[in-house]
Q: What sequence folds into this?
């Protein structure tokens, strides 16, 4: 048996695979369940006790040598076939060149503020059904937002749409039935709008939902006021204007004092001193009911803002299309942001 092991050792040492397949063949021949090594281990059972130690060591050495040969030669093939790139894709992200997109920077900053208040990030699908985007949110069947003008339909009956807002994620969280709820839903949304400096058919939102016992409009105001102070700076004023959304009652839009001119009046605020940044309101009892939450026991507030709008205010960008063109001259300005 000793000679046999020596002979195989010489054999394998001389082996040089010329392809990945040949190497795999080699592995099967020696190391598979029915391979040479298994055979040798079976033979080993018959070895005389005084020889066992030596034979055992030799056999293990042979096995390890074969494994080493395979590992070593495998590397050759990997670097050869993947040699098209000299990037090390396993390096940690920090070591790579590049920077975050301004929309990601702003989204992360907003998320962080709400996370500190106890909100958790929730996500949902971009391709949605009518129920989650409209019906569960109290949109009447003939509401104009469902119209072909606004919504991208994937299929009609059953209605499959690209979500027009991330309120659909709120519905999905409410459906899970775990209360209280305190979530923010950042994500990409789609509306069939003509592309211009102020509008795009793809944009991003962050929506928030808070449902618990005794949640009031005062809680909503305080939460959003805190967000504005954190994000736009201490002393930024807020004002709420009555508005309408099918899923909130009372509904409001919130303006902040223009962060460019400080309220004096400029082009950005159209000389009013105020800029609108979000829609919000107290959850309509109907949407709680649609998700089996008892509106007698629970109340909630919701809000939603466009990330592009916040980023435009923060960085004084006046054309929304910039965010989607991926022009490096634009993106490079955020390298250190
Ligand atoms: N979903 C609304 C929109 O897309 C924003 C909003 C969210 C308004 C929550 C009120 C409450 O315009």
A:
């Amino acid at each position: 048996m000793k000679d046999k092991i020596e002979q195989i050792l010489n054999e394998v040492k001389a082996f040089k695979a010329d392809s990945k397949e040949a190497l795999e063949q080699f592995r099967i021949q020696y190391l598979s369940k029915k391979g040479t090594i298994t055979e040798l281990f079976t033979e080993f059972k018959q070895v005389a006790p005084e020889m066992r130690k030596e034979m055992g060591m030799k056999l293990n050495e042979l096995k390890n040598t074969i494994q080493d040969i395979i590992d070593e030669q495998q590397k050759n093939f990997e670097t050869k076939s993947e040699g098209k790139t000299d990037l090390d894709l396993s390096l940690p992200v920090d070591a790579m060149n590049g920077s975050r997109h301004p929309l990601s920077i702003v989204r992360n900053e907003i998320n962080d503020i709400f996370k500190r208040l106890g909100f958790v990030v929730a996500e949902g699908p971009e391709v949605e059904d009518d129920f989650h985007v409209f019906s569960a949110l109290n949109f009447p069947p003939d509401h104009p937002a469902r119209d072909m003008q606004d919504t991208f339909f994937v299929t009609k009956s059953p209605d499959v749409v690209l979500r027009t807002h991330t309120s659909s994620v709120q519905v999905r969280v409410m459906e899970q039935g775990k209360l209280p709820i305190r979530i923010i839903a950042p994500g990409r949304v789609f509306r069939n709008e003509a592309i211009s400096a102020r509008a795009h058919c793809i944009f991003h939102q962050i929506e928030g939902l808070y449902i618990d016992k005794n949640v009031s409009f005062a809680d909503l105001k305080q939460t959003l006021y805190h967000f504005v102070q954190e994000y736009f700076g201490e002393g930024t004023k807020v004002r709420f204007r009555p508005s309408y959304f099918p899923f909130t009652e009372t509904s409001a839009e919130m303006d902040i004092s223009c962060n460019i001119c400080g309220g004096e009046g400029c082009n950005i605020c159209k000389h009013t001193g105020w800029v609108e940044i979000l829609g919000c309101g107290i959850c309509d009892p109907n949407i709680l009911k649609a998700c089996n939450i008892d509106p007698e026991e629970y109340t909630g507030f919701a809000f939603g803002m466009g990330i592009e709008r916040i980023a435009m205010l923060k960085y004084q960008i006046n054309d929304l299309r910039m965010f989607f063109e991926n022009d490096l001259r634009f993106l490079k300005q955020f390298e250190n942001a």
User: Anything to note?
Assistant: The first helix runs from residue 2 to 13. The first strand starts at residue 120 and ends at 121.
